Backbone:
């Protein structure tokens, strides 16, 4: 297991943003379907400098082929074979699994109690299974994370529509440069 991991959201971080669509229409950005090469480059530089491996916490993790799909898009955008090591669980899917699921009414009640912090709980479940010295979370929405995780979050402002930029890369670098932490 690597010493450092980055819990990575995809939409509005690496995937198509309004800015990317605008540049593509102007003809100044190659026609890559989903990932903006500039955002991928910013993330890649920090990840490689820290030997940090991505753990996918995005809704993209729900696809059975999430790793090959993300790897293909990242390769097209200039990061061949990113070292994706895993994905977090999907709390909602886990609660609705037929084999171990409580009755529907109970599942709904449980999920609605957990929903405000679902991504944070999913990250904690992963960290409980695979303890690491350093972690950071890159996402465009901080609401679903737990309060004690806030210092480890690089919030990507979805209203700027620019994806992961050098500003976020500097914040990520700062988090990964801190002494080893536990959540």
Residues:
């Amino acid at each position: 297991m690597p010493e450092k991991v980055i819990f990575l959201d995809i939409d509005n971080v690496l995937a198509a943003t309004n800015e990317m669509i605008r540049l593509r229409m102007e003809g100044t950005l190659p026609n890559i379907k989903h990932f903006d090469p500039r955002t991928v480059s910013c993330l890649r530089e920090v990840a490689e400098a820290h030997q940090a491996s991505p753990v996918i916490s995005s809704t993209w993790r729900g696809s059975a082929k999430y790793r090959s799909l993300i790897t293909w898009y990242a390769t097209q955008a200039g990061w061949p074979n990113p070292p994706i090591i895993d994905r977090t669980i999907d709390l909602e899917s886990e609660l609705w699994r037929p084999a171990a699921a409580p009755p529907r009414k109970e599942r709904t009640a449980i999920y609605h109690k957990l929903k405000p912090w679902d991504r944070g709980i999913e990250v904690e479940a992963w960290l409980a299974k695979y303890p690491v010295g350093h972690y950071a979370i890159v996402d465009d929405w901080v609401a679903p994370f737990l309060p004690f995780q806030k210092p480890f979050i690089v919030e990507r402002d979805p209203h700027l529509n620019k994806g992961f930029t050098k500003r976020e890369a500097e914040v990520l670098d700062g988090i990964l440069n801190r002494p080893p932490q536990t959540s």
In short: Residues 37-50 form the longest helix (14 residues). Strands lie at 4-8, 52-56, 86-87, 134-139, 153-155. The domain at 4-177 is CATH 3.40.50 (Rossmann fold).
